[in-house]
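Design a sequence for this backbone.
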């Protein structure tokens, strides 16, 4: 192709020479022309591949290189020869991004090479034609003589020996056929039994490996299944022993709703401070609860609300036993979820995420809750829904004391037979952001291999997991981008998606990856609408 382009350029130079006053074309000018042609050819192939960097995944590469994250499947199809698992790409891989002109150039070069070979062949034929006819005749005569002698030797072979050989061969053939028939019958029987067993195993594996409630074409669901299959295969280079298969989940906004209209623990505290007839809140607590409730509905939360809520909530539940607080939370879970039809706060679990926890549990992953909400309240919420034991719940913690301890320091007080453990009410740790990493290190003692979150409070935990240098690890973030089935927030969703692309996390779109959110019959409605309908009906 380069030779044709060069010829074309030379023709243009010649035409230009005839059209203007004649001058000599220098060798430098010819070299410049060849260089320009070469550069044009090279430029046609630029940008058609991409070298994988640490933290890359197909959706991220499709977004950065092709402008659309949904075109990840195109990249996967172009690189199936080296990508066996769309969720498992390696740093340093050179990926094709689109079909380019390389094939055409290869074919054209091959055609030129073939033409040259044909020309050489024709020259060789001409040379052979000029060979002496006399030499050919001599060679043929010699070959005919040799053929005749060989035939005579074969005719002289003993007919008796041929008969013996044929008889022996027939005997061997019969024995071989009998052996093959027996072997074939035995193999058919074994294959039939193996196929039957494999079919049963496939059925069981298929039933176990399904992620329910996810969209059928969800790339995230496919990536999770492929990851689990890879790291639980003992023959895989990425195999993770059972004792190290640890997955950590944030709770509000990751496993359960946080937009009815706010976190469960915020709404529980507001109920305690403002509407519980059996509890009289101090004036400053009541004032904060009123400001918090107003801010939730108008979008202007009080300054420093997280820490203020943590301290006031500890005081609001002080004196309760852990079981009494669990029972209190359980009762509040029966209340209607504001902003939804046919949904209580206790039912407001994301069904696809519940299925995911169950799926990981079936494959021997140890799943932990790592939440910024009260640990005791979290235990009450997940009790009857998730296969996570209470000792794998990490959350905001308060002091606990003996009911008869009073102001005596725990180093001095001895627990008695009449004592109960009660909430002391003093905040120990608010487990968000970097505090999540600290809590995981202190309470688990190992770096997890999977992380699931949804907000800036979960970024440190996700990065901690991605940094795991012992095993293949993944971090996922749930995006609140569904404006029909949920009270989504596109500004927050877009911001978190950007963070995912920057840090190598995989975004989970509630809109595109979830087949359902809360299940059939649940609809998102304006806040207060359900309450207004109930009042009108009353």
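Sequence:
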């Amino acid at each position: 192709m380069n030779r044709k382009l060069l010829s074309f350029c030379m023709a243009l130079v010649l035409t230009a020479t005839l059209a203007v006053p004649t001058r000599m074309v220098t060798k430098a000018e010819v070299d410049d022309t060849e260089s320009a042609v070469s550069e044009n050819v090279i430029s046609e192939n630029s940008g058609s591949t991409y070298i994988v960097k640490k933290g890359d995944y197909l959706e991220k590469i499709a977004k950065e290189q092709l402008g659309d994250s949904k075109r990840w499947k195109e990249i996967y199809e172009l690189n199936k020869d080296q990508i066996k698992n769309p969720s498992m790409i390696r740093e340093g891989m050179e990926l094709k991004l689109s079909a380019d002109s390389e094939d055409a150039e290869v074919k054209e070069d091959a055609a030129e090479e073939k033409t040259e070979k044909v020309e050489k062949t024709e020259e060789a034929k001409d040379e052979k034609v000029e060979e002496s006819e006399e030499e050919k005749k001599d060679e043929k005569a010699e070959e005919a003589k040799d053929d005749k002698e060989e035939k005579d030797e074969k005719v002289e072979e003993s007919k008796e020996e041929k008969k013996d050989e044929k008889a022996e061969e027939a005997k061997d053939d019969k024995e071989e056929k009998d052996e093959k028939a027996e072997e074939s019958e035995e193999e058919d029987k074994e294959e039939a039994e193996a196929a039957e067993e494999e079919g049963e195993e496939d059925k069981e594996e298929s039933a176990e490996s399904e992620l329910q409630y996810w969209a059928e074409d969800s790339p995230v669901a496919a990536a999770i299944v492929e990851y689990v299959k890879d790291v639980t295969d003992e023959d895989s280079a990425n195999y993770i022993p059972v004792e190290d298969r640890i997955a950590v989940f944030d709770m509000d906004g990751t496993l359960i709703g946080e937009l009815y209209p706010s976190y469960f623990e915020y709404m529980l505290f507001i109920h305690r401070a403002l509407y519980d007839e059996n509890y009289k809140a101090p004036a400053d607590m009541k004032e904060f609860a009123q400001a918090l409730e107003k801010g939730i509905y108008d979008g202007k939360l009080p300054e420093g609300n997280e820490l203020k809520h943590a301290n006031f909530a500890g005081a609001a539940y002080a004196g309760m036993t852990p079981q009494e607080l669990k029972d209190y939370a359980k009762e509040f879970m029966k209340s209607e979820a504001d902003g939804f039809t046919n949904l209580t706060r206790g039912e407001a679990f994301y069904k696809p995420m519940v299925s995911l926890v169950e799926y990981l549990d079936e494959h021997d992953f140890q799943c932990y809750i790592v939440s910024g909400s009260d640990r005791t309240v979290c235990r009450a919420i997940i009790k009857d829904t998730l296969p996570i034991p209470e000792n794998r719940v990490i959350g905001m913690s308060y002091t606990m004391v003996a009911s008869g301890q009073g102001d005596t320091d725990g180093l001095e007080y001895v627990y008695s037979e009449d004592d109960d453990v009660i909430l002391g009410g003093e905040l120990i740790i608010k487990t968000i952001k970097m505090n999540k990493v600290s809590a995981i290190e202190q309470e688990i003692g190992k770096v997890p291999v999977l992380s699931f979150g949804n907000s800036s409070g979960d970024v440190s935990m996700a990065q901690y997991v991605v940094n795991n240098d012992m095993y293949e690890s993944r971090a996922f973030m749930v995006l609140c981008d569904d404006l029909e089935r949920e009270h989504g927030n596109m500004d927050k969703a877009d911001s978190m998606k950007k963070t995912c692309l920057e840090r190598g996390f995989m975004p989970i779109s509630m809109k595109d990856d979830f087949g359902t959110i809360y299940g059939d019959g649940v609809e998102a409605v304006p806040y207060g609408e359900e309450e207004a309908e109930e009042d009108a009906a009353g």
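Residues 225-537 form a domain with the Rossmann fold fold (CATH 3.40.50.1000).
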